[in-house]
Amino acid sequence: MIQTTEKISPYISSVDVARILDVNVATVKRWTEAGKLDCVKTAGGHRKFLMRHLAAFAIEHEKYAQHLPLIQFGSELNLDLNAEILRGEFKDLVPFFLEKAMLCESNMIQNILNSIYMVHHDLLLIYDGLLTSVLHEIGHKWERGELSITQEHLASQTIRDGIVKLQEIVKKPEPDEGRAFVLTFSDELHDIPAKMVQHLLETRGFQVLYSGQRTPIGDTVKVFESFHPQRVYISSVYVENLDEAQAELTELVDLCGKFNADLYGGGSGLSQLSIPEDIHIRQLSNFQDVMES
Ligand code: B12
Questions:
Q1: What does the pLDDT look like over 191-204, one tens digit per residue?
Q2: What pTM value is reported for the model?
Q3: Alpha-carbon gap, residue 206 to 227, rounded angstroms
Q4: Ligand 1 mutation pick, 98, 135, 190, max ligand atoms within 8 A of CB
Q5: Which ligand 1 atom lies nearest to the CA of residue 139?
Q6: Which member of 88, 192, 247, 256 lies 3.0 to 4.6 Å from 263 by CB, making a disulfide possible if both were Cys?
């Protein structure tokens, strides 16, 4: 686990690239000049590399793949899936990931999530790009009767566990941006989007209290009194009882007003509720919005 709170640069120097690929620095220079190995140039003219540059090179030059943390898919190094990870486009990876999630192959799930993070340093790509698609695909398959309820549970729990483990490896800055409270309504079982919101806010430097599924809003007053969140994020995917959810939203708006907290909301459940114009709730439609909120 990475414990440090310092910012770690994702850039790798030519010397380190040479060490990783077990060649000399002159070779690295030659490859970049020949356009075989991509890089970025600093203002001072130095070559810097990202993991994805190295991985793209290794996919073209298989001999070097052994030096890099490309994913071993079962007994083979599936270069097509590795290439998708590099490009950050997950067409074939989505069904593969879903199958592995249903089989609870948590090591594979973790390897994929960690690799995407290592290559791109971008959690949005994982949350908006991969996991939302996989979870929607679970929903479609379930609707078409292609998945049993148990299979759906297995897959969603494996994915949720994967997010929790990813939280352990992604370094967080000092929590000096303020305090945020992430919650769902009292009839909500879908807590995966809220978990992603928690993680994204932590990487932005917020100290986050996350109360997860089924939070009775009337009961949160003590949290407001002791934690004094400056921001509250409500995630609502499915509303079981419209009147109750509407009443809880009103309660939450009142609490935020009383304790001077900004209220943000997201999820398809919220769109079923009526939100009068004078209510101050900023509606967010995806995780990119959370990063920009
Ligand atoms: C996993 C899952 C479950 C798991 C949840 C596990 C868990 N720990 O979260 C379990 C098995 C418990 C479950 C239960 C149920 N589920 Co369910 N579930 C799903 C599934 C497959 C994925 C949900 C998910 O995490 N999606 C990923 C998120 C990221 O996607 P999203 O919700 O579309 O969110 C997007 C935006 O809305 C936004 N967003 C969402 N939340 C937030 C929050 C913030 C703050 C922000 C900024 C943005 C944001 O970001 C996302 C990206 O664009 C969906 C299928 C689907 N289409 O999503 C069904 C789905 C949501 N479930 C559904 C149903 C019907 C149920 C049950 C009623 C089933 C039943 N008969 O018991 C119960 C509901 C229980 C309850 N009271 O909540 C329906 C809801 C249909 C509807 N809206 O009327 C769906 C759509 C499946 C379907 N196709 O029919 N479910």
A1: 999 999 999 999 99
A2: 0.84
A3: 13
A4: 190
A5: 55
A6: 256
Calpha distance 233→231 (Å, rounded): 7
Every domain of the chain and the residues it spans = 8-68, 70-170, 178-292
Surface-to-core class of residue 34, CB atoms within 10 Å of its CB (0-12 exposed, 13-18 middle, 19+ buried): exposed
Give the torsion through C-alpha atoms of 111, 116, 118, 119, to 10 deg. 130
User: Does the CB atom of residue 267 touch ligand 1 within 6 A?
Assistant: yes
Identify the CATH class of 178-292.
alpha beta
Q: Say how many Å lie between the CA of residue 289 and the centre of ligand 1.
A: 19
CATH number of 8-68: 1.10.1660.10
Residue nearest to atom 24 of ligand 1 (CA): 135
Q: Is 51 helix (H, G, I), strand (E, B) or coil?
A: helix
CA 212 – ligand 1 centroid, Å: 14
Q: Counting atoms of ligand 1 from 1, which one is nearest the CA of 236?
A: 41
188-216 in b/e form (b: 16+ CB < 10 A) is bebbbbbbbbbbbbbebebbbbbbebebe
- How far is it between the farthest Cα atoms of the chain? 69
User: Which CATH class for the 70-170 domain?
Assistant: mainly alpha
Looking at ligand 1, which residue's alpha carbon is closest to its atom 44? Answer: 266
